Backbone:
C-alpha cells in the first residue's frame, strides 16, 4: 500500500437518510500513513461520512474508493483485509474473555477454527495495545477504557492497513483518552492509516496529522493563510465563541465563556 | 483456564460410563443390576448370554439410551447456538417456539401422513422460529425481552394448532399424540432412533463446523460485518442447522421444555462462553445429563414421569433465576 498516493478517495458524494440530506457533495483525498481527524458539530455528518467510507451504509457506485477500489465492489472479506472499523460503544452480552473478543477480529482469515498463527497475532496485538495482562479477563468486567483498548486490539488483529474509528475516546476518562490517542498516533507512525471522528478539537490538534471539517453536511476547507486551529475559523465551524491558546506550534481550544 | 480444561476432559470421559450404566438399569423387575453386569461380562468374554436379558438390553434399553443422549445433545447444542446468534442468553428451541412448531408439524404428519414426519417437524420448527424473530425485530434491532414475548405468542399459536390436530384425530392416534407431546422417551425404539439420525447429525455437524464463528456473531452484526462475515447468511445457516437438530429431536421425543436453555448455561458456567469449546461440550454434556434424568424417571417409581415434565419443573425456576441475574429490563 506504500506507493498509493491516496488511501481514500471520495468523489462528489452525497448521502440522505430517508428524505433528509446528511452529506452534500463531499470530495476528499486522504493520504496513507496519516492520522486524519473528522471534526464538526453534532449532526454535521461526521459519523455518516466515516461509516460510508467504511462500507456500513448503502453507497452509490463510483463515489468512494478505498486503496483505488470502489467500495461497492469490494466483498466483505476483502474489505476486512483492507480496513477495520471501530464502532461507537459496543454492548456485550456474553462474558467472553478479552482474548476471545480480540480473536474475532481474525474472522476474515479463519475458515473454521483459529490456527496457531491467529493466536500468535492476537498475542502480539494484545502486547502492542498494552493489555496482554487482561487476556483472560472477562470483557464485560473491564473498565470503559480497558474495553475500548480491547476493541481497538480487535480491529488491529485484522491487520488491515487502514482503520476507521468512530469516536474512539467518547466514553473514556482523561487518562484513557491520552492512552488511546497516543497509541493511534504511534500506529500511524508505523505506517497505519487512520481516520477518526473526534469531539474535542484540542485532543485532535494534540494528536492528529490532518483535519477534515464538516458543517451541515458540507466539507469546509481551511481558508488560504489560515490554520485549522485558528479561533475565527473554528468559531464558524462550532458556531460558538472560543479561544485558541497556543501550544506546541498548534493550539488548545477552549470556550470563551468559560470561567466568566 | 486450566481448570476449565480439566472440567471439559471430565465431561467427555464421563459420557461413556454413563451410557453403559444406563443400559444396565431400568424398571424391568426381571433384570437386576447384577443380571445386567453378568450379561455384560458374558458378552465381553464371549460366553453364552441369556437371550431374554439380551433382548431387553439391545431392543428396549439401547435404543432408548441412545435416543435420550442424542435428543439431549441436539437440544443443548441448538439452544447454545441460538443464544449466540440472537445474542440472547434467555432463548432456547422451546422459548422461540421452535419446539412447539416442530411438535405441530410432527403431529400433522402423524395424523394426516401428508409429509414425512421429520421433514414436517423441521419445516414447521423453522417457520416458528423465523416468525418469532421477525415479529420481535424493530428498526433492525431485536431486544432480549421482545424476542421472548414473540416466542411465547408463536408457541401459543402452534399449541393451539396442535390442539386442532388432536381434535380431528381419531381416538387411537390421539392418545399417542398427547402422550408424545408431553415430552416422552418411552416409545423410543430402533425405528424412531434411525428416523432422526440423518437430520440430527446434519444439524449437529453443521453447528460444530460453525462453532467459532458463533463467537463473532455473538458480538454483534456490525462487528461481524466489519471483520468480514455476513451476519445475515451466517445466522440463517445456523438457524437452519439448529432447527434440523432440535426439530428431529422433537419429532421423536416430543417437547422437552426448557432443556435447551438450562444446559448451555451450566456449560458456560463450567467451561466459559467461548463457543469453540462450548459447542461440542453442550452436545456431550446435554446428552449425558438428559440420560441421567431419564434414568431417574425410569427407575424412581413404578410409573414413568414424562421427561418433559421433569425438565419443565427443573427449568422454570432456573429461567426465573436467570432473568433476575441478567437484570433484564424492558428496553434492552
Residues:
Amino acid at each position: 500500500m506504500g506507493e498509493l498516493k491516496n488511501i481514500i478517495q471520495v468523489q462528489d458524494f452525497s448521502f440522505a437518510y430517508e428524505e433528509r440530506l446528511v452529506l452534500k457533495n463531499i470530495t476528499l483525498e486522504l493520504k496513507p500513513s496519516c492520522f486524519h481527524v473528522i471534526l464538526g458539530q453534532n449532526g454535521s455528518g461526521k459519523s455518516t461520512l466515516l461509516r460510508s467510507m467504511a462500507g456500513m451504509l448503502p453507497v452509490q457506485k463510483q463515489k468512494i474508493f478505498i486503496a483505488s477500489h470502489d467500495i461497492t465492489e469490494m466483498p466483505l472479506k476483502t474489505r476486512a483485509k483492507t480496513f477495520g472499523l471501530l464502532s461507537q460503544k459496543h454492548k456485550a452480552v456474553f462474558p467472553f474473555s478479552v482474548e476471545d473478543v480480540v480473536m474475532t477480529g481474525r474472522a476474515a482469515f479463519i475458515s473454521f477454527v483459529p490456527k496457531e498463527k491467529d493466536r500468535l497475532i492476537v498475542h502480539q496485538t494484545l502486547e502492542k495495545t498494552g493489555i496482554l495482562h487482561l487476556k483472560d479477563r472477562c470483557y464485560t468486567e473491564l473498565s470503559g477504557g480497558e474495553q475500548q483498548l480491547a476493541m481497538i486490539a480487535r480491529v488491529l488483529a485484522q491487520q488491515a492497513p487502514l482503520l476507521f474509528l468512530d469516536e474512539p475516546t467518547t466514553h473514556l476518562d482523561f487518562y484513557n483518552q491520552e492512552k488511546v490517542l497516543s497509541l493511534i498516533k504511534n500506529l500511524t507512525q508505523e505506517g497505519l492509516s487512520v481516520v477518526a471522528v473526534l469531539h474535542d478539537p484540542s485532543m485532535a490538534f494534540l494528536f492528529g496529522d490532518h483535519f477534515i471539517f464538516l458543517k451541515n453536511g458540507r466539507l469546509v476547507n481551511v481558508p488560504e493563510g489560515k490554520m485549522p486551529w485558528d479561533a475565527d475559523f473554528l468559531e464558524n465551524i462550532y458556531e460558538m465563541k472560543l479561544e485558541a491558546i497556543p501550544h506546541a506550534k498548534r493550539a488548545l481550544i477552549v470556550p470563551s465563556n468559560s470561567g466568566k | 483456564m486450566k481448570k476449565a480444561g480439566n472440567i471439559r476432559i471430565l465431561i467427555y470421559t464421563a459420557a461413556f460410563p454413563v451410557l453403559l450404566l444406563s443400559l444396565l438399569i431400568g424398571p424391568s423387575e426381571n433384570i437386576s443390576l447384577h443380571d445386567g453386569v453378568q450379561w455384560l461380562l458374558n458378552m465381553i468374554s464371549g460366553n453364552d448370554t441369556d437371550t431374554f436379558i439380551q433382548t431387553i438390553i439391545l431392543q428396549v434399553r439401547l435404543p432408548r439410551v441412545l435416543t435420550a443422549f442424542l435428543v439431549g445433545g441436539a437440544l443443548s447444542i441448538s439452544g447454545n447456538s441460538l443464544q449466540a446468534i440472537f445474542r440472547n442468553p434467555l432463548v432456547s428451541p422451546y422459548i422461540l417456539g421452535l419446539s412447539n412448531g416442530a411438535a405441530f408439524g410432527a403431529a400433522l404428519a402423524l395424523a394426516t401422513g401428508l409429509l414425512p414426519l421429520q421433514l414436517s417437524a423441521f419445516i414447521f420448527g423453522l417457520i416458528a422460529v423465523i416468525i418469532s424473530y421477525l415479529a420481535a425485530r424493530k428498526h433492525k434491532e431485536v431486544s432480549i425481552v421482545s424476542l421472548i414475548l414473540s416466542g411465547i405468542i408463536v408457541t401459543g399459536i402452534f399449541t393451539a394448532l396442535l390442539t386442532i390436530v388432536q381434535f380431528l384425530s381419531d381416538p387411537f392416534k390421539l392418545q399417542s399424540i398427547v402422550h408424545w407431546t408431553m415430552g416422552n422417551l418411552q416409545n423410543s425404539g430402533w425405528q424412531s432412533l434411525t428416523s432422526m439420525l440423518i437430520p440430527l447429525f446434519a444439524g449437529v455437524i453443521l453447528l460444530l463446523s460453525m462453532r467459532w464463528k458463533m463467537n463473532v456473531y455473538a458480538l454483534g452484526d456490525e462487528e461481524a460485518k466489519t471483520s468480514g462475515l455476513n451476519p445475515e447468511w451466517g445466522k440463517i445457516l445456523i438457524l437452519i442447522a439448529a432447527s434440523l437438530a432440535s426439530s428431529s429431536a422433537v419429532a421423536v421425543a416430543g417437547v422437552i421444555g426448557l432443556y435447551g436453555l438450562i444446559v448451555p448455561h451450566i456449560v458456560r458456567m463450567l467451561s466459559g462462553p467461548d463457543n469453540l469449546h462450548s459447542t461440542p461440550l453442550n452436545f456431550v454434556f446435554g446428552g449425558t445429563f438428559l440420560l441421567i434424568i431419564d434414568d431417574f424417571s425410569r427407575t424412581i417409581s413404578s410409573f414413568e414421569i414424562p421427561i418433559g415434565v421433569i425438565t419443565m419443573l427443573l427449568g422454570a425456576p432456573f429461567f426465573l433465576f436467570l432473568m433476575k441475574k441478567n437484570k433484564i429490563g424492558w428496553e434492552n
Summary: Chain B touches chain A at residues 1, 84, 87-89, 209, 211-213, 215-216, 218-220, 222-230, 268, 272-274, 276, 332 (CB under 8 Å).
